[in-house]
Amino acid sequence: MNRSIVCLSSLIVCFSFFISSCDKENTQNEDQQELAKLLTKIRTLAESSRCGDDINIQTLPFGNKACGGPSSYVAYTNTINVQELEKLAANYTDLEIRYNKKWSVISDCALVGGPKSVNCSNGKLQVIY
After folding, report:
1. What is the pTM of this model?
2. Average of pLDDT values for 51-59?
3. Contact 118/126 with Cβ under 8 angstroms?
4. 103 backbone dihedrals φ, ψ, rounded to 5°
5. 85, 60 contact by CB (below 8 A)
6. Which range marks the domain in which residue 98 is found?
7. Which one-letter DSSP state was computed for residue 70?
């Protein structure tokens, strides 16, 4: 009888660990999806920039590698809502910092450099890394 209780208790504990690890994985996937959606918004807004001879092209670092520093850069012009882009980039950076801590992310610690150049072709930005 005691052996049955011990076996049943052990089975319940193992099953609990299994269930909690599944929840953690689902939550991590949800966090990744949230980052991906925000990244899409950032890139879509930045890519809607128009450019020309009299329009200033800028780059914005955003995100956070686990070792520190930005995880990416985006090029844009002032033909878009720059405040919205900066807000989205700040939100992404904060979210990625939390994600890295929550999931104990390890990084390669390589510096992510900005674009080597950004050119204008047919009114659209062309980023060269």
Report:
1. 0.78
2. 92
3. yes
4. -105, 10
5. yes
6. 2-128
7. -
